[in-house]
């Protein structure tokens, strides 16, 4: 068994993190229960979490060390998410994605976040910062709905920032790594097929 552990140094850490996940969730539930002022469930959850930590200790796993590993991995992941590709700075690009408005003039968008999937930041967590682009269109864009599919083109800039966008239940500050100013924005929605009454419609 010892030889297998030495041959695959990453495996024990991943296993420990998976084993610990249930205890982490329970501890988070305890914190939430305290915040809500409902102390009825707290003793039960505390006992369950303590039992889980004791089970890990019996296996030679230090719960605090595993949590520290988790925090370190989260920090590393955030650094990676915030990292951009320097070689792309200033490059002329064309990107497709979904429009999430950040600034409006009436019903026209003057700044938005281009995100890689529908529901990002509203129904699902924000995408990694290096997968989002903060866009200022050359002309205010007439928005039909949130998450409208669009094509954007312009000079990509490496410009890390955190600014709010409009989501279903208000505003949310979202990090992004890239930005495009004076962007050309074109709807990517399928065009309706020509009809007999309008045979010249493109």
Q: CA-to-CA gap between the ends?
A: 68 Å
Q: What is the percent of helical residues?
A: 25-40%
> What percentage of the residues does DSSP assign to strands (E)?
25-35%
Characterize the main sheet: 5 strands, mixed, barrel
**Poorly predicted segments:** 1-19
Description:
With 202 residues, this protein is an alpha+beta fold. Helix content is 35%, strand content 33%. The chain has helices at residues 2-7, 10-36, 42-58, 63-82, and strands at residues 92-105, 108-115, 133-137, 141-142, 148-167, 170-187. The protein has a five-stranded mixed beta barrel. It is elongated, with a radius of gyration of 24 Å. The N and C termini lie far apart (68 Å).
Please describe the structure with a list of short key phrases separated by commas or semicolons.
202 residues, alpha+beta, 5-stranded mixed barrel, 4 helices, 6 strands, 33% strand, disordered N terminus
């Amino acid at each position: 068994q010892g030889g297998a552990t030495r041959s695959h140094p990453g495996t024990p850490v991943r296993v420990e993190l998976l084993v610990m996940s249930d205890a982490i969730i329970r501890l988070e539930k305890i914190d939430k229960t305290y915040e809500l002022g409902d102390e009825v469930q707290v003793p039960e959850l505390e006992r369950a979490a303590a039992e889980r930590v004791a089970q890990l200790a019996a296996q030679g796993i230090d719960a605090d060390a595993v949590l520290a590993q988790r925090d370190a991995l989260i920090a590393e992941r955030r650094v990676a998410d915030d990292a951009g590709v320097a070689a792309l700075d200033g490059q002329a690009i064309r990107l497709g994605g979904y429009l999430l408005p950040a600034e409006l003039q009436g019903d026209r968008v003057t700044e938005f976040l281009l995100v890689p999937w529908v529901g990002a930041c509203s129904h699902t967590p924000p995408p990694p910062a290096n997968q989002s682009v903060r866009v200022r269109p050359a002309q205010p864009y007439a928005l039909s709905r949130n998450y409208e599919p669009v094509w954007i083109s312009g000079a990509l800039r490496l410009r890390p920032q955190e600014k709010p966008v409009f989501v279903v239940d208000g505003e949310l500050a979202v990090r992004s790594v890239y930005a495009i100013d004076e962007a050309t924005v074109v709807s990517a929605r399928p065009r309706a097929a020509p009809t007999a009454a309008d045979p010249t419609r493109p």
